[in-house]
Each structure stands twice: as structure tokens, then as C-alpha cells.
Design brief:
The complex is a heterodimer of chains A (about 250) and B (about 400). Chain A is of the alpha/beta class and about 250 residues long. Chain A contains 9 helices and 10 strands. Chain A has a 6-stranded mixed β-sheet, sandwiched between helices. In chain A, helix 6 links the parallel strand 7 and strand 8. By secondary structure, chain B is mainly α. Chain B folds into 2 domains: about 260 residues, no CATH class; about 110 residues, D-Maltodextrin-Binding Protein, domain 2. Chain B contains 16 helices and 4 strands. In chain B, strands 2-1-3-4 form a 4-stranded mixed β-sheet. In chain B, helix 7 crosses helix 10. The chains are: A alpha/beta (about 250), B mainly alpha (about 400). The interface between A and B is medium-sized, with 30 and 21 residues.
Chain lengths: ~250, ~400
């Protein structure tokens, strides 16, 4: 369960002054559901998700993740979250197994349960063939699997995906989307951000559209279709975002 | 504070470090190979140069002296210089190193001496040029000996004892034990080496573990794990510290071995190096331990400062351009301590790096000023703690971690 309450993030920029990267955003993600955060580049998706994963600290507001406050108990939150983005690279000089084990240990697993857990994950994700290969020698698909294994090693109830398929080829992207679905089926709370409409249509139970740091609309795909009298998500997105987008360009 | 978490980070960083060619080269191979290569190289070069200098007999041009055959004969008999007859353009010949010096004997020199009239012998040389100085010295010594001989003859003729001209003797005598003499001369070098190598050893991992992590995109990965940022920064810090101390220890070891081997092969001629090698070999465990104890807070200081600065950089290259100037900040006080006449004072003992460098000089010479040791150790620990505190603070700042 994720509950964002008035989440805000402001940066100081030397040229442009104060930037409201995320501006008073509130939403709720339920266990066993996928929440999709849809927005253009620079809309505030990454900053929002980084705040949920406690990589960044909110300027205002907070979020409750699995009952823990992201501001007050960030380490507890991180222990309950699996975070995956295209920016979360692997340690190239470690082998796939060492890499996953490292994160298992950081999550407090003892050696016995770590071994069991790693064996289990490597078999399930079909990774045994390259478990002793260094990460810099892995293919993109193998790297993605290794990243997935990292997010799973502590079996977190909440999964946060920040543009997880960005820049990946179709086959690798499908591995990721299949994994996201599996997380939901296992009852995890899932939030993911993307600017790819088809992914949202296929995966999400709830959609939030974000632009200029503000959460503009929220609802199921059906609710959004009814509200904007459009079938295609892309048309809905354009209708929602255009007024704000133009305003920003003018600004 | 969880030692377990710090240990997990440390072990992982260690695994990565030993698998990284650049780290292995800079912290293990360079210090191990630098001194053997340098000393063998310099040794071979020195032997070659000295040999060549010995082979060449410097030419000295004789000007005048036709009526002073005894002096000319004496000059011609001198070893290791060759007297050549006068030719035109002698000044240019000296400048062009065709001849090394010229000696001018005034007309009627020998008869003037016999008549107790004072003349001047002029020697023309190329100042600072080694072979010219060598030839000049030879000629000058011969002329001075000749003068002394004349003086003695005159005194004898007048039945006066030698003491007329030398009413008393002045003599210098060293009372410092030999290890203190060589300590004063070479102790500074050891402090300097240890300090500088602590710095170079820390430099590469400091960049790799901070800016390198940002550049390779693993910063976000590690920050999303439950480890606290303090444990993370401490784990990294301890690895950098290990590299700093390891490099310094390996270098001193390699320096000692290669100097002593070199000293063995070149024999007694390489006086300076021999003394240094002998000194290193004679360093007791007490000195080695005390030098390293003093180096410890310095290594902590360097590791924390370098890590903090490198953390600001987004890429490894950027970090390099920030850290390279730091080398000079360290070298200058370390070198200052080697200058003759710079000695520990209460004020100097508060200046970081310089104080430890000065103290190392004393420690190597076997002098233990306990009050200075206490001040310097404490002050360096305070600086080191402040630097480490700053590093931890910086690691918690988003503007530093996610600088764009």
C-alpha cells in the first residue's frame, strides 16, 4: 500500500529560480493493483517515484509506504520496496550472483536464507546459466533479469518501477512487463511510470496523468474514457495535458 | 551504527577494487615497481654519466707562462687534465665546451715570485658546468699548493716556524650519533614519501567509489537499498583508507629493498643513496610503527577529503580535474618540511601535513618529543574527524548526490 499525501519537491535552479518538480501530489496505490503514472519527459514522474523510494526527500508533504513514513523512517520504507529503473545499473565488476547477494545482505538476510532465496530466484528467472558471469559481460536481457532479481531478493510488498522499459528492445521490455504483472498477481502493490501509452493500457488498474509536477487526473481507463469521451488513451492524454503543456511552453 | 552493514559495503567494494585493473595498478603495482625502476634507472644513468665524465679528460688551455717553465711543467704533469697550447677565441672555446678552462700565467711570474712580488693567476671557467669546475679545481689546487710551498720556503729561509701563519687550528667535530645525522638528512624523505603515497593511494579509489559510481549509474541502485547513507559512506571510506595505507606501506617496503639492492651493487661510490638505504634498513620496528601511527590520521584526513571532493563530480574525469590540484596542496607542506632549517615549533605543529612531515623527520632520527607527538596526533585526528564528518554530511545532500 502506498499513500502519497501532498507530496512536493522544489529545486533551486540558478537560472530559472525555484522549480516545482512535484507539486502537492496525492494518490493511493492498493495491494494487488498496478498504478500507472503517465507523463511526458520532465513531468515529475521520476522525482515522485524517487521520493516514494526515499532516494529523494520531499520538500513538503509525505508518503506512507507499507505503514512507514518516507520522511520519518526511510530505511524501513526501503526494506519494503523494490525499486527498478533504467537508471539503476549493475555493479559491473561483480558477478550476477554476487550482485544479488550484496543486496540481499544489505536487506539484512542471513547467509542461510540468502543462499536459499538466491537459488530460488535464479532458478525461477532462469538465470543459472550466467550466475557466475560478471555483470559487464551480460547481455541486456540478462542485465534486466539480474536487476529484477535484485528487487526481489528481499521479497518486498511494494514495487516501484521508473520507466522500466525505456530504451529496451521489445523482447527485454516484455520480460519486464511480464514481471510487473506477476508482481500484481502475487498481491504486491505496484506503481510504475512511463510515457508509453500501450503499456499503460495493457497493465494499469489505475492511471494518473502528471504534468508540470501536478497530478491532473486519476482513474481507471474506463473512467477516463467516459470522462473525456475518447477511446484511445493517447487522445485522452493529449486532451488532459495540452492546456498545461502550452502554458508551460509560453512560460 | 552497524558494523555488519559497514562490513558488507567494505567487502563488496574490496571485491570490486581488486578486480579493477586501474585500482590494482595505482595502489599495488605502481608503488611496488616505482622505486626499483627509478633506482635502477637512476643508478644506471648515474654510473653511465659518471663513467663518461671520468673517461673524458678536460682540456685546459695555457695562456702565457713561457718564462715560467717550472709551473708549466707542473701543470702538464697533473693527472686527469690535459694542457693544450694557446689558440685564438679561447673564451668561445670554453663556452662551446671545446676546452673546459683556461689558465693565464702573467709574464715573468716565476721571477716575480722569486723576487717576492705579488702576481695574479687567472683561471677562466664555465661556472656551474661540472667538467669545467672539475678542471678549474685541479688547476687551482695545484697553484695553491705551489703557493704554500713558496710560503714554507720563505719561512724556512727566515728561520720562522710554520705557526707564524697558523697561530691556531679550528676543527669541527660531530657529536650526534650517525643515525641522527642521517635521520636529519633523510628522515624528511621518508615522511614525505609516506604522506605523498597515502595521498596517491587514496586518490583512485576515492574517485572510483563516488564519481565512478555516479557515472556508471549505480548510485541510484545502492541508494534504493535499505542501508543507511552513513553506513554506506563509512564502508566506502574504510576501503579508501585501506588503499591509502596499503600504498604507503608497499612503497616504503619497496623503497627500502630497492635502495639497499642498489647500494649493494654500486658499492661505496653512491654515498647519498647508500646512507638512505642504510637508514631504511636500520629503521627499527619502533620507528616504523611510530611513523605509521602518525600516518594513520593523515591517511584518514586524505581519504575523507578526497572522497568528499570526488563526490561532487558527476564523472570520473571531472573528479580527476578536481583532485589533481590537491596533489600540490599536499606536496608543498610535505616538501617544506624537508627544507633545512625548518623545525618543529608549537605553531607549525598545528599545520596539517607539514606537522606530520616534520615529526617523521624527528622520529626517523630517533628523537621522541612527546609533547609535540601529542599535539600533532591530536590535531591531525581532529582535522581527520572534521573531514570525515563533512564527507558523511555531503553524502546525505541530494544536491551533491544528484548534481546535474
Amino acid at each position: 500500500m502506498i499513500e502519497a499525501r501532498g507530496l512536493s519537491k522544489r529545486f533551486q535552479d540558478k537560472k530559472r529560480g525555484e522549480i516545482r518538480a512535484v507539486d502537492n501530489v496525492s494518490f493511493t496505490c492498493q495491494p494487488g493493483k498496478i498504478y500507472g503514472l503517465l507523463g511526458a519527459n520532465g513531468a515529475g514522474k521520476t522525482t515522485t517515484l524517487r521520493m516514494l523510494a526515499t532516494i529523494l526527500e520531499p520538500t513538503d508533504g509525505t508518503a506512507i509506504v507499507c505503514g512507514y513514513d518516507v520522511v520519518e523512517q526511510p530505511e524501513k520504507v526501503r526494506a519494503n520496496v523494490g525499486f527498478l529503473s533504467t537508471a539503476t545499473a549493475l555493479y559491473r565488476r561483480l558477478t550476477a550472483q554476487e550482485f544479488v547477494e550484496y543486496f540481499g545482505r544489505l536487506n539484512g538476510l542471513d547467509e542461510a536464507s540468502l543462499k536459499k532465496r538466491v537459488d530460488d530466484i535464479f532458478s525461477r528467472l532462469d538465470m543459472n546459466e550466467f550466475r557466475d558471469r560478471r555483470c559487464d559481460k551480460l547481455s541486456t536481457g540478462m542485465m534486466q533479469k539480474t536487476s529484477i532479481a535484485r528487487t526481489l531478493v528481499h521479497d518486498p510488498p511494494v514495487m516501484i518501477f521508473d520507466e522500466p522499459t525505456n530504451g529496451l528492445d521489445i523482447m527485454t521490455a516484455r520480460t519486464i512487463t511480464a514481471f510487473i504483472r506477476e508482481c500484481r498477481n502475487n498481491g504486491k502493490t505496484v506503481i510504475f511510470s512511463t510515457h508509453i501509452m500501450s503499456e499503460v493500457e495493457k497493465l494499469c488498474d489505475t492511471i494518473g496523468i502528471i504534468q508540470s509536477g501536478k497530478l491532473l487526473v486519476e482513474g481507471t481507463l474506463g473512467q477516463l474514457r467516459d470522462k473525456y469521451a475518447e477511446h484511445e488513451l493517447e487522445e485522452i492524454f493529449v486532451k488532459v495535458v495540452t492546456p498545461h503543456y502550452v502554458a508551460e511552453e509560453a512560460h | 551504527m552497524s558494523m555488519r552493514n559497514i562490513g558488507i559495503v567494505y567487502r563488496k567494494e574490496l571485491t570490486e577494487a581488486v578486480r579493477d585493473r586501474r585500482t590494482v595498478i595505482s595502489t599495488i603495482l605502481v608503488p611496488l615497481l616505482l622505486f626499483p625502476v627509478l633506482s635502477v634507472g637512476f643508478g644506471a644513468l648515474a654510473i653511465a654519466l659518471v663513467g663518461k665524465a671520468k673517461d673524458e679528460v678536460p682540456k685546459v688551455m695555457l695562456r702565457g707562462g713561457e718564462d715560467s717553465p717550472a709551473v708549466v711543467e707542473g701543470l702538464k704533469k697533473l693527472d686527469k687534465i690535459e694542457i693544450v697550447p694557446e689558440s685564438s677565441g679561447w673564451k668561445d672555446q670554453i663556452i662551446n665546451k671545446e676546452i673546459r678552462a683556461a689558465v693565464e700565467i702573467p709574464a715573468g711570474f716565476q721571477s716575480d715570485v722569486a723576487q717576492e712580488k705579488s702576481d695574479t693567476i687567472k683561471i677562466f671557467k664555465y661556472e656551474g658546468e661540472m667538467k669545467s669546475e672539475f678542471a678549474t679545481e685541479k688547476v687551482e689546487k695545484y697553484m695553491k699548493d705551489y703557493r704554500d710551498k713558496v710560503v714554507k720556503e720563505r719561512l724556512a729561509a727566515k728561520n720562522l716556524p710554520d705557526t707564524v701563519l697558523k697561530p691556531f687550528e679550528v676543527k669541527q667535530e660531530n657529536v650526534a650519533p650517525p643515525e641522527k645525522v642521517s635521520g636529519a638528512a633523510f628522515g624528511g624523505i621518508i615522511g614525505y614519501m609516506v604522506i605523498l603515497l597515502c595521498m596517491t593511494g587514496a586518490m583512485y579509489p576515492a574517485m572510483d567509489l563516488t564519481a565512478g559510481e555516479k557515472e556508471r549509474g549505480t548510485m541510484e541502485t545502492i541508494l534504493s537499498s535499505p542501508i543507511s547513507r552513513m553506513h554506506l559512506v563509512l564502508g566506502k571510506f574504510f576501503l579508501i583508507l585501506t588503499a591509502a595505507l596499503g600504498t604507503a606501506a608497499l612503497s616504503v617496503l619497496s623503497m627500502g629493498v630497492s635502495f639497499s639492492v642498489l647500494g649493494h651493487y654500486t658499492g661505496k661510490t653512491a654515498g647519498g643513496r647508500d646512507a638512505a638505504a642504510g637508514l631504511l634498513l636500520r629503521l627499527g620496528p619502533k620507528t616504523v610503527i611510530s611513523v605509521f601511527l602518525m600516518a594513520l590520521p593523515v591517511a584518514v584526513l586524505f581519504s575523507a577529503v578526497l572522497m568528499t571532493i570526488a563526490l561532487f563530480a558527476k564523472t570520473y574525469k571531472e573528479a580527476q580535474s578536481y583532485l589533481t590540484p590537491m596533489t600540490f596542496v599536499v606536496i608543498i607542506p610535505a616538501v617544506a618540511a624537508m627544507l633545512p632549517g625548518v623545525e618543529l615549533t608549537p605553531k607549525l605543529s598545528l599545520i596539517p601535513i607539514l606537522n606530520v612531515s616534520l615529526l617523521c623527520k624527528e622520529l626517523v632520527a630517533g628523537t621522541y618529543h612527546w609533547n609535540f607527538i601529542a599535539i600533532i596526533f591530536t590535531s591531525t585526528c581532529v582535522y581527520a574527524a572534521a573531514a570525515l564528518f563533512l564527507a558523511i554530511k555531503m553524502f546525505q545532500r541530494e544536491s551533491v548526490l544528484f548534481r546535474s
